[in-house]
Amino acid sequence: MKIVTVGDNCMDVYEQTGKAYPGGNPVNVAVYLRRLNHAVDYVGVVGTDHYGSLMLDALSEKGIGISHVHQIPGETARSSVELHDGDRVFGDYFEGVMASFSLSEEDIQFICSHELMHTAYWGETDRFLPRLREGGVLICYDFADKLDDPKVEKLLPYVDYPLFSYKQDDEYIRSYLKNAHVTGAKLSIATLGRNGSLVYDGKTFYTYGIEDTAVVDTMGAGDSYIAGFLAGIAEGKTVEECMRMGTHSSAVTLGYSGAW
Fold first, then answer.
1. Secondary structure of the chain in the HEC alphabet?
2. Residue 130: band (very low, low, confident or very high) from pLDDT cuts 50, 70, 90
3. Most exposed: 9, 85, 122, 202, by fewest CB within 10 Å?
4. d(CA 92, CA 70)
5. From CA 202, how far away is CA 174, in angstroms rounded?
6. Could you tell me the sign of the dihedral formed by the alpha carbons of 16, 32, 52, 104, in that order?
7. Contact between residue 55 and residue 72 where contact means Cβ atoms under 8 Å apart
8. Amino acid 84: pLDDT
9. Phi/psi of residue 18, each to 5°?
10. Which residues pair with 199 in a beta bridge?
11. Quick check: 118 and 6 in contact, CB under 8 A?
12. d(CA 127, CA 88)
């Protein structure tokens, strides 16, 4: 299955160490999918600054297809990050050239030449989802923890695999996933942090716990889960196996500093 990720990227700049790591949800998911031996392309935009060149070099080194990553005049997006007992705390965010991100007709055709696409809440792709869905590509969208955002209801009809971040398995999230499924989703997915994950397929709820691991940095853990889950979909695995693959991928990422 040909996979493409589309949307935001940024450099995560750690205030305590001064080190900077390439990141951003679609970028991270692409890298983790490649780690799982899946070929993947990334579509996005970077600036002509040092960080933009670093992002392109890092993606190329990881084996990600970057033929549709556009480098335009300006600065690459960046976030300041601090670590508090292993948990990441985001500070200021500078959007840079992501503020003008758009998809050309050529980009749209390129994306639709794939079978599965992943994007996310900050990816600036919302207005293109109807065209992309019409083009036949399956769409995965990470809504993060924005469950109350009005655009969830607006975008769900175009999403095959909606993902949400929540805190626990309770009646609220189960009802929420059921409602999300009504619009035509194939699977509705919620990651629950230390409480594992929950998936609804229209008939059955599936639950999965976490792997015991020494947590060094939580950066990219959720994106790793997405990549593992999508790898399972691409390989035709069962829901339970997709959840297991997502959980294991996340556990690997928790064991080192930075997203990747």
1. CCEEEECCCEEEEECCCCCEEEECHHHHHHHHHHHCCCCEEEEEEEECCHHHHHHHHHHHHCCCEEEEEEEECCCCCEEEEEEECCEEEEEEEECHHHHHCCCCHHHHHHHCCCCEEEEECCCCCHHHHHHHHHCCCEEEEECCCCCCCHHHHHHHHHCCEEEEECCCCCHHHHHHHHHHHHCCCCCEEEECHHHCEEEECCCCEEEECCCCCCCCCCCCHHHHHHHHHHHHHHCCCCHHHHHHHHHHHHHHHHCCCCCC
2. very high
3. 85
4. 24
5. 11
6. negative
7. no
8. 66
9. 80, 0
10. 189, 206
11. yes
12. 30
- Cβ–Cβ < 8 Å for 243, 208: yes
Task: Give the residue from 32, 16, 145 showing the smallest Cα distance to 86.
Answer: 16
- Token pair for residue 220? 């990219």
Q: How confident is the model at residue 88 (pLDDT cuts 50, 70, 90)?
A: low
225, 241, 257 from 248: Cα distances, Å: 8, 10, 17
The backbone region for 7, taken as left when phi is positive above 0, alpha when psi lies in -120 to 50, beta otherwise, is left
CB–CB of 142/246 below 8 Å?
no
Tokens of 131: 């065209």
CB count within 10 Å of CB 195 equals 16
The pLDDT of residue 12 is 86
- The encoded tokens of residue 139 equal 């769409």
